[in-house]
């Protein structure tokens, strides 16, 4: 009887894993099948090198570079905001904060991850942008910097929580050895704890980057939806995800070349996130083998 119940549980777990794999394969199949139709009409060289993205205009250009630049610009701003703040919070909670405070602050911090991203988008548009306009003359209502800053606020819990877990998992013997050598708490935190937890911290940053790259609502509301090849954070930009939303909710004819552009953009986004996830897995595996 016990063996039968274990087999049922094992079968259920295997089925759940199979569903996950099949879902991923199905998504990849849809993206590839539709993208092939797009690339039969548009040269992949033009797609990767053209500096204009105007598939919905009379003069049609299908260069993905403007969308990539908008995606990477907002992501870079988000990481620049979230990394120092998130890492500082993680070090404080792990090395300085009392256990009682840690138990209260960490769940409260993770509430930020539960806030709907559409709320973040309106916060960027109605609060952050007017505030930045006080200091940046000529800043438009839609820009990359406000969207990037709010995206950074959104991913702070991801970096701080995972980094804190990595720091907390360090053996106490390392800290005690550092204190025994006469090191201060600050030296122990940044010269012993952080380097020892570097694999977990790097993985948290990579996952945060992947999360920022895939963000949709914040950039759709606050960034401006203008596919311009620029690295100026004051400009309005459009990201890959924002373009997909724009076309999906518009009046583009199903099956047309304009409609198929969302699948070409989608497969590009899938490739980048796939690469980032594999890099994080490789880094984690490499450091685990190093310390085992």
Task: Give a written overview of the molecule.
By secondary structure, the protein is an all-alpha fold. It has two domains: 40 residues; 227 residues, Orthogonal Bundle (MetI-like fold). Helix content is 75%, strand content 0%. It contains twelve helices and no strands. Helix 3 runs antiparallel to helix 9. The longest helix has 40 residues. It is globular, with a radius of gyration of 23 Å. It starts with a helix and ends with a helix.
Concise synopsis of the structure shown:
This protein has 292 residues and is mostly helical. It has two domains: 2-41; 65-291, MetI-like (MetI-like fold).
Question: What's the arrangement of secondary structure elements?
Answer:
Layout: H1 2-41, H2 44-49, H3 65-96, H4 99-110, H5 117-133, H6 144-168, H7 172-180, H8 185-196, H9 198-213, H10 217-222, H11 240-248, H12 257-291
Helix pairs in contact: 1-12, 3-6, 3-9, 5-6, 6-9, 7-8, 9-12, 11-12
